Amino acid sequence: MEKQVEIEKGKxxxxxxxxxxxxxxxxxVLDFMERLKNEEDQNAxxxxxxxxxxxxxxxxxxxxxLSCSDLEQFEVVMSYSRQRVDxxxxxxxxxxxxxxxxxxxxxxxxxNLMGNVDDCISSCYRSTSSATMTDExxxxxxxxLHHLSKYxxxxxxxxxxxxxxxxxxSGNMKDFHGLxxxxxxxxxxxxxxxxxxxxxxxxxxxxxxxDRLDGDSRLFKLAHLLMKIIPIELEMMQIC
Length: 240
What we know:
Blueprint: H1 2-38, H2 47-65, H3 74-94, H4 98-103, H5 106-123, H6 135-156, H7 161-181, H8 187-190, H9 194-213, H10 218-239
Helix pairs in contact: 1-2, 1-5, 2-3, 2-6, 3-5, 6-7, 6-9, 7-10, 9-10
């Protein structure tokens, strides 16, 4: 029994290291993309491709971070999303001045990114719900969930009020947690509500996954989800 516990602990530690490396690479790549959009002497880059890349990276990071390897079609969907990242990077980088890529060390970062994506997907296992995320990890997850819900609300279901509400709730939770991380709100004041942030994030993540695969009962499930997470938002607003 102790040996099995040690094995699981080793897997968890290894997974944390892999995901930490992936998170760092994603931040570096997205920072590079933002710089490209602002470079005056740089060839024009396709903003749509960059936003699609951001979305696919947010999707991969969300379900790797939630360790959702037992979800339906996990390997198929994640492999497809990984290929999308690769396909999006190629045309973007083809328009980039080679000097800009060297300046930001992209020759090293991009291969690392794809390698870490592969490692995280293959090493992903279902972690226990009691595993508490650090503030940094939760902040990263909330940011990615906001990107995903915003895309659904604005691009896929622009006429459905439920998705707009989900986008707003996700954005509010992201902003509120950002205030905590940045020290604008005393940690002790909100300590009791922090576990509910992770609960909310996990529920939103599961909904977005199933929504991608099966939209038949989407509105019913979304209404049920909002009933679960809106009280958390209201509690947050009372603190503010």
